[in-house]
Amino acid sequence: MNPLRWSLLALVCLASWPLFAADETGPREGALNTYLTREPNDTNGQLALLQQNVFKLEADQTVLLFLLQYGNRVHLERIFFPANTSDHEMIPGFVFTPAAGIPAGTRRPGLLIVHGGFHENLDWRFFRLVVAAVEHGYAVMFPEYRGSTGYGETIYNNSYGITDVADVLASADYLSKQDFVDGKRMGILGHSRGGMATVLALERAPQRFQAAVEVCALLDFIAYMSYKPAARQQEVAREKQFGGKLPSENLPAYLEISPINNVGAIQTPLLALATTGDKIVPVGLNTERLIDILKARGKVFDSHIYTNAPGGHTFFWGDSEEQKDCFKRSFEWLDKFLKP
């Protein structure tokens, strides 16, 4: 190659280098986050700031309530753990262990408990499940994935099937590396959207978990978008991955985050639980179809569909025979593979 061509090639490589570097290392150096104005003069700004402050107070109140009720039985530690996405965020979460401590050299199986909701977080409804899991022999982590409330606008920013799943998998990596956790015995349990994140995590990281439970999981996101009110449809569509478009205009983006479309990738033993009469995540559109596919693909699974359990979609939190049976089945399944 003559000297002129070498010079041109060198110039092209130099011109392209910042682009390649950005792909490898994440955001370009000097890129800044944007935050809410702390002293807004406009009404919308004031309301947005007030909303985030209220969410933070609610999160702090939840911690105090847990400590008052169960602090003598379970140790709660608030943490930030590193995300595995290119923005290198720190994600909030909780780790729960026995109040009496874990003897040195002892390793417990790890269990992630994944909340649902469009913008929710740890609240009192999870207390009994968390305490039962710790007293059953698990080290429990509750990730507050992006989309959760109580931690400011950066964590509040929602991304169905993208950052929520990435943060759940990052929390599994974090928990598995703790001295008191056996990283080869990892379980995950999720309800509603948490069930969606659970099944997506199984599909995207087939070797990460050794047992899983989904309860009333949202599994077909396209079906979900078909029956939700227009205001919710538009709110979801505004998320970055959808580009402001509904499924009719951007179908691939919605197919990608619908767990029902990639069940074949699941290698983790999965327990599927749901109830008829679910008015938020209809069982016929979601868990019943999942069961059929798991069976057809020869997967390791078990399932149970309750008949009109009190509370429907929220039966998992009620004080009922169905809820007690749900907890019993969940721990029997997890214990079978994780052996606490």
Can I get a quick summary?
The protein contains eleven helices and eight strands.
On the 0-100 scale, what is the average pLDDT? 91
Strand order of the largest sheet: 1-2-4-3-5-6-7-8
How many helices does DSSP assign? 11
Q: What pattern of helices and strands is seen along the backbone? A: HHEEEHEHHEHEHHHEHEH
Question: Alpha-carbon distance between the termini?
Answer: 66 Å
Number of separate domains: 1
Helix residue percentage? 40-55%
State the name of the first-level CATH class: Alpha Beta
The coarse silhouette is globular
**Share in β-strands:** 15-25%
Low-pLDDT residue intervals, each spanning 5 or more residues: 1-24
CATH superfamily: Alpha/Beta hydrolase fold, catalytic domain
Instruction: Fill in the CATH topology.
Output: Rossmann fold
**How many strand elements?**
8
Give me the Rg, rounded.
Answer: 22 Å
Mind telling me which CATH architecture this is? Answer: 3-Layer(aba) Sandwich
- SS content category: alpha/beta
- Most strands sheet: 8 strands, mixed
